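Run folding on both entries below.
>entry_1
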Amino acid sequence: MPKMKTKSSAKKRFKLTGTGKIKRKHAFKSHILTKKSKKRKLALTHDALVDKADENNIKTMLRLK
């Protein structure tokens, strides 16, 4: 039986923290930035954690589960 492959899309989008939580980037920061305020763009720069409800799906995609 061959090894299970991780989903390439998930591999590129998520990182694991030291405590086992999953980090993600914010959406809406790639283009059409002129109409967004400086405060909003700065807030979107910082990483966020994946919600508890989505954690199991993402761990499955990353083959951590």
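>entry_2
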Amino acid sequence: MIVAFSVTPLGVGEDVGEYVADAVRVVRESGLPHRTDAMFTSLEGDWDACMDVVRRAVAAVEARAPRVSLVLKADIRPGVTDGLTSKVETVERHLAEG
């Protein structure tokens, strides 16, 4: 399973980087394969592991913000591993072929 999610603190002003860093720290400490970009953090693992990380990432932001927004998208595909890498490699291969 791959989960892409974004946790945004509300009611703390425009500069939210330090709050988002709290969420990303939880992801990094989880040990699950992950990637963070400008809009989302993606992680890969089984349902329980991924949802636990998302829950803890939200809690980390919620501890410092009066309100939290969560956007989550999941690719639930049993038997697939290393999807974070293989999906990107497939697209890159097609791009290289012209």
